[in-house]
Structure formats: C-alpha cells, structure tokens
Amino acid sequence: MTLLNEQQITDGLTHLDDWEWDREHHEIRRTVKMPDFMSAIHLITAIAHVAEQANHHPDMDIRYNKVTFHQTTHAAHGITENDMQLAARIDELVADAQPRG
Ligand SMILES: C[C@H](O)[C@H](O)[C@H]1CNC2=NC(N)=NC(=O)C2=N1
User: Fold this and answer.
1) Is the ipTM of this complex over 0.85?
2) Would you say the CB of residue 75 lies under 6 angstroms from ligand 1?
3) What does the pLDDT look like over 34-51, one tens digit per residue?
C-alpha cells in the first residue's frame, strides 16, 4: 500500500467528480446533496456494500440530505490508489442515485 505523491493525487483528482484534497487531514473529500434523508441513507448503504467488498471504507458523515465522504488509507496515514479507486466507485453510485447531478 504505497502513498501517492502530490503529483499522483492531483492527477487522480482530474479523473474524479467533485473531490477536494485536504492535505492537512490527509484525505480527499466530496459532499453530495440528495433529495431527502432516505435517499441519502440508500446511497450510504449502496456504498457500504461496495466498501465492504473492497475491504476499504470511507468515513461517511450524513446531515439530513447532505453526505460527505472522507477517503484516506488509515493504515498508511495518507492517500493511496485504493482511495482513488473507491472514490471512483462512489462517483458512479452517486451518479446512479442522482441522475440530474
Ligand atoms: C485489516 C483491514 O485491511 C483494514 O483494517 C482495512 C479496512 N478498511 C480500511 N479502510 C480505509 N479507508 N483505510 C484502511 O486503512 C483500512 N483498513
């Protein structure tokens, strides 16, 4: 599990939807707004299944209809390829759940 360098993280973000890199917290982060609370819960559940299969888990924070995903590799104290891959899967599930963006 190799940490990505600055260049690799910046490049990786160009292939993702609205993720931002928080260097201080060693994570990438995306917030999405769903129509309502239950849609947000369904989205989180779908992501939980994918995360469990990948054995790589995002931190997910839900406030009514807003969900924030925090992605980092705890064991490596930073961002790895696993984080980029899971972020891409999260983007797909968000796009499926929220077709109009
Ligand atoms: C033992 C097992 O591989 C781990 O504890 C996994 C599970 N999911 C994980 N998820 C994330 N995001 N970072 C980790 O370091 C991590 N470790």
Assistant:
1) yes
2) yes
3) 999 999 999 999 999 999
